[in-house]
Every structure is written in C-alpha cells, then in structure tokens.
Design brief:
The protein is an alpha/beta fold and 457 residues long. It has 14 helices and 13 strands.
C-alpha cells in the first residue's frame, strides 16, 4: 500500500543516511524548506514558521555532531512539525481561533522539549481549526487548510496542518493531538500512517480526559521512530505512564494465530460507506491469509452516549466562548459559535448527565472488548466516509450530526486504548481510505506492528 517517497520523507532511511554519512542534515533540511516555500501558499499548513536560516544552523550543528560521532540521538538532524496546541516557549498558541488572544508559553511542553533534546529540527507549528473542535481544516484565524492530494478536498482535523504537512512533503515527522479522532481522521483522508498512543504514553503539558499527542507520518516505521523520542514518563504530566522499555524499531510480526476483531457496524452515528467497509474487510482478509483468526464484533454503543459527549464538549467550549467580549465572539467561526451556543441554557444537572456519558462509553467499550475474547487487535473504519470538500467544516454538518463521524474513533480516546491508521486503498476518484487498528491497553508497539504488516501487503 505504501508508495516509495523521496528520501526526505522517509525518516528511517534519512536517519540511516546521517549515520553512515551518505546524507547530510543541511542538504535535507534545505530540500524540505524548498518544498514548504513551493506548497505553503496553497496548503496553508503552518501557523508559525521557524526562521529558515535558524533551522539550517541547527542542521549544520547536527552535521558536525554526526561527523564527530556524537549525535544527540538516532534522529539528530531530522525535521519535525508540532501542532500549535503543543506548547513551545515563545511561540504563540492561537488555538486556531480569531476570537482569542494567543497565549505565549514561557517554557516548552514535554513534547517540544524532547524533540529539542533529541536534536530534531522543528520547522514550525501547524494549524488547527477553532479550539480543535472541527474535523476539517477550516479556521477563523488561519482560513482553509487544503489536502496536498487535491486542494478541493479536506485534510481532516483537528490536526489539519500536521496532516497537510505530512502528506505535502514538509519532512517525515509530525506531531498531532487527538481527543476524539483528530490524529486518525487526517490519517484516513490523507493516506497517512498515524498513532493515537495509549493515554499517558506521551506526556502532555495540559492533560485532559481523552487527549493525547501522537505521530503522523508516511509509514508505521517512521511513527515508531518518533515514538522512541516522545514516549516515557514526565513529572510535568501527572497522568503519564511509568517507564516501560520498548524497542520501538522492532516491528516484525508473526500473524499466525493472532486474534483479530473486525468491527464494521457502529450501531450509532453514521454507518460507513460500502467502499470503506470493503477496504477494511480487505485488510482483515490480508491478515487472515497471513495466519490471523478474524472474528466479527457487533456494535455496543448507542446514539444517546455520543449525543451526551457532544453536549459536554459544547458546554466546555461555551464556557470559553461566553467569556469573550462581543467583538471577539463575532470573530469566532460561525459554525463553532452556533454549536457552542446550544449549551447556553443547559442546567448543571444536564451538564453532569452529559459528562456521565464518558463513563458509560468507557464501561461498555471495555465490556465489549472482553466479550469479543480479548482480541490482540481490532480492525475498523476510521470514519464512515472519505474526504469531503475543504470548505466544509464537518463531514455531516447539518441536523445536529456534527460529531456523528467520530463513532469509530471516539471510544478509544475514552478507554485509552492505542489506535492507529494506515492507508488501505482508494475510491474510484482517488480519495484515500484508511483502516483503524486498535490494540490492547498499553500495547502501542503491537498496533504499529500490525500497521507495518498491512503496509507491506
């Protein structure tokens, strides 16, 4: 499934080239900067672009370290972008919203700090839609971010800029965040490999129920390489997992006897298109031919739970929106302003009832996993449909269906299961279709191994 990419888009091969001297960081960074110069006016992926000469200075310093045999890490000199809600000292965080005053952090988040300490060259911060609450690249502050595959198509979101940068050739490694599908949705609509790690695997500067940061790249191996830098406990994040020794580069997998669940009927939200189901079933069949045992898994969640989560997120964003001055509110994306305003008259009891939907999703999802026989992985669609128009804020924006497309992704944010995506095919008009691979709790490498196996079919 994976196409061979230019050298600067393959992190594993580029790092190998730095190590053996066949590639030099300044040359590679210059090539990537030229791509950004050419494509950024159309794609609109960056909210903040780091000084180009400064990145070349970092690349030259990396080259010197490699020449001296003292690289900071195996990824020293590779490039990375960070989503704009990943705090970087001195870099404005606009949250994609024209109605808010940007926050300028004084210190790096754990993710940004680890990238710097590993010698990664940060090219810039990538855009997101208003408050990260859209599955598209539509933002009141940044305008429209477009798919590198076809500018008429959406990137998905809310890691819209990260997805556009990954698919558009802005280097091999990118960090997005995900609270209900925001890494995986750009993954499916842009043909990327992505990982929403286990909750707490990558430390955050502002933990929140369901939120994670994770890698977005062209291949599972590149995602694994970035995980080797980002994963691990940090005292800044009280939710971070204890240290666990993981060889992220070991992606070889014997599929013989592996138990695989196949979930293609959500039972709530929008049911997937036939093309999407066919692509997921084809991926499952590939695993079966390689020796896995595939068993269907039926639906376990209901519409009222998704509606409850929707109401709680509306209330959370209404709290932010309602504190803005009228002139600021007028600058918020109209779709978001209308969405949050539905929570204006909710009572405290109604908000708490909505919050309890999170616990119900957790309990029912864990019970469904156990009832399925504790599979090693579960395959499903990422989203019900394929890429929609770039100017559209959501795939199903009308009739209260704004979040009906996160029915396959949202449960795993609530339970903390690792879940990734890999390109699984194309529609007749060339739109990518991804498959979601969900792993057992804390088995992030197991997910990457299955993604890697599917890439090679």
């Amino acid at each position: 499934m994976t196409q061979h990419a230019p050298r600067h888009l393959d992190a594993v091969a580029t790092a190998r080239g730095f190590a053996d001297g066949s590639l030099a960081p300044p040359e590679v960074v210059a090539e990537i900067q030229a791509v950004i110069d050419a494509r950024e006016p159309e794609l609109n992926a960056l909210s903040f672009r780091d000084d180009v000469e400064g990145t070349l200075d970092q690349a030259r310093a990396s080259a010197h370290r490699w020449e001296q045999g003292r690289p900071l890490s195996p990824v020293d000199g590779l490039t990375v972008t960070l989503k704009e809600n990943v705090a970087r000292a001195g870099v404005p965080m606009t949250m994609g919203c024209a109605g808010v005053e940007p926050v300028v952090p004084e210190v790096d988040s754990p993710v940004a700090r680890r990238c710097r300490e590993a010698g990664l060259v940060v090219l810039g911060s990538t855009v997101m839609p208003d408050w990260g609450m859209l599955s598209s690249g539509v933002s009141s502050r940044h305008g429209i971010t477009r798919s590198p595959l076809d500018p008429a198509w959406t990137t998905g979101g809310s890691s819209s800029g990260a997805g556009a940068a990954a698919a558009g050739g802005y280097g091999p490694l990118h960090v997005g965040t995900d609270i209900g599908g925001s890494i995986r949705l750009p993954g499916t609509w842009l043909g990327l490999a992505t990982l929403k790690p286990s909750a707490g695997r990558i430390p955050l500067h502002a933990p929140y129920l369901g939120r994670v940061a994770g890698p977005m790249a062209r291949t599972a191996a590149d995602c694994a390489l970035l995980m080797s830098v980002l994963a691990g406990p940090d005292p800044v994040d009280w939710t971070s997992l204890p240290d666990q020794r993981i060889d992220w580069t070991d992606l070889d997998l014997d599929l013989t006897g592996m138990r695989v669940g196949l979930w293609t009927e959500a039972g709530y939200g929008v049911e997937p298109d036939p093309d999407v189901v066919a692509a997921v079933e084809a991926a499952a069949a590939e695993l079966e031919r390689a020796g896995a045992r595939v068993e269907p898994v039926g639906p376990w969640l209901t519409q009222d739970l998704l509606d409850g989560i929707d109401r709680f997120w509306q209330a959370r964003s209404w709290a932010d929106y309602s504190r803005l001055a009228p002139a600021q509110q007028a600058r918020v994306l109209p779709y978001i302003a209308e969405w949050v305003s539905r929570a204006a008259d909710l009572t405290g009891t109604e908000v708490m009832d909505a919050y309890h939907a999170f616990g119900q999703v957790q309990a029912r999802t864990s019970a469904a996993w156990a009832a399925a026989g504790d599979p090693e992985v579960l395959l499903s669609p990422v989203a019900p449909g394929v890429a929609f128009p770039a100017v559209q804020p959501m795939p199903y924006p009308d009739d209260g269906r704004g979040l009906w497309h996160i029915n396959f992704t949202m449960p795993w944010n609530m339970t903390g299961h690792p879940a990734g995506t890999v390109d699984a095919g194309r529609t007749a008009d060339g739109r990518p279709i991804g498959v979601q691979v969900v792993g057992r709790p804390f088995d992030d490498r197991g997910v990457l191994r299955v993604l890697h196996a599917l890439e090679r079919r």
